[in-house]
Specification:
The protein has 49 residues and is of the alpha+beta class. 29% of the residues lie in helices and 35% in strands. Strand 1, helix 1 and strand 2 form a beta-alpha-beta unit.
Length: 49
């Protein structure tokens, strides 16, 4: 397995980052990657105001 890092970003409160994490984990494993760490950005700075 090739080690990898993944970045997940959701821009609305209605989106769930867990969906992207699950998808990326399945996608990466099917292609020989092992995600060692997920960086998750749940809201952009513009939505926090």
């Amino acid at each position: 397995m090739i080690p990898a890092i993944a970045y997940v970003r959701v821009s609305t409160e209605m989106q769930d980052p867990a969906n992207q994490v699950d998808y990326l984990r399945r996608w990466s494993e099917s292609r020989g990657f092992q995600i060692l760490k997920f960086y998750i950005d749940e809201l952009s700075a513009a939505h926090r105001q």
